[in-house]
Amino acid sequence: MIDPADSPADQEGADAPLQRPGIRRRAETTIRHLLSIQIVRFGLIGVVNTAFGYGLFIALQLTLGTVTHYLVVLVVSTVIAIVQAYILQRWLVFRHKGNWWAGLARFTTVYFGAFLFNLAALPLLVEIAHLPVIPAQGIAIAVQALGTYTAHKLFTFRSGPANPDHGSTDAKSSDPGSGSDSGSANLRVVSLATGEVLS
User: Fold this and answer.
1) Please, what is the Cα angle at 86 between 151 and 154, to 5 degrees?
2) What contacts 24+ positions apart, CB below 8 Å, involve 83-90?
3) pLDDT of residue 7
4) pLDDT tens digits for 141-169?
């Protein structure tokens, strides 16, 4: 005998929990695929780095800026932001395995050039263009990003034995350990996106 309560709508609702895990798995697979593309990771981490650096500058300007010059605030925030950016770019974007300090030296060289640009651009925008300090720094950061991207690709994390996955997508290395490093980095980011702790 057919139970009238077992309507198609009820059966559809009963199947929904079974469909959700499949949808979640497909979403995680898509995220992993996107995170395997180096330029996507660079963009995502670049947003994090920019938000951190700009946010730090704002916080220091609103506090230390009341007792010191804004260029002092710029120096302090830049030094902190460089170290934070290098760690994330090395670990999650380029997955560089070379010497940590040599990489930091090249990274710092690139950012020193960007800093000199910033040091010239910020007073120009504030003193000549008469823009407020905070929006002026935002404009300077946007221009800096274009140059630092190219410099990191060609210089800081250049291709070589220590960095086999420098292309737009991560190459499959013949080293058995390299796959686990790439997978681990992807899973760490996916776990943040999905709210799960993935082993």
Assistant:
1) 20
2) 84/49, 84/52, 84/53, 85/49, 85/52, 85/53, 85/111, 88/45, 88/48, 88/49, 89/42, 89/45, 89/49, 89/152, 89/156, 89/157, 90/157
3) 55
4) 888 877 887 888 788 887 654 444 444 44
CA distance 33 to 189: 12
Residues 6+ apart with CB under 8 A from 169: 36, 37, 38
- What φ, ψ does residue 150 adopt, rounded to 5°? -65, -40
Token output for 127: 């003193």
CB 173 within 8 A of CB 161: no
3-state secondary structure of 163: strand
Q: Which of 50-59, 84-93, 180-189 has the lowest mean pLDDT?
A: 180-189
H or E stretch at 86:
helix 70-88
DSSP 146-159: HHHHHHIIIIIT-S
Q: Which residues contact 85 (CB under 8 A, 6 or more apart)?
A: 49, 52, 53, 107, 111
pLDDT digits (tens, 9 = 90+) for 165-186: 444 444 444 344 444 444 544 4
| Terminal Cα distance for the chain, rounded | 48
The stretch 114-129 carries a mean pLDDT of: 92
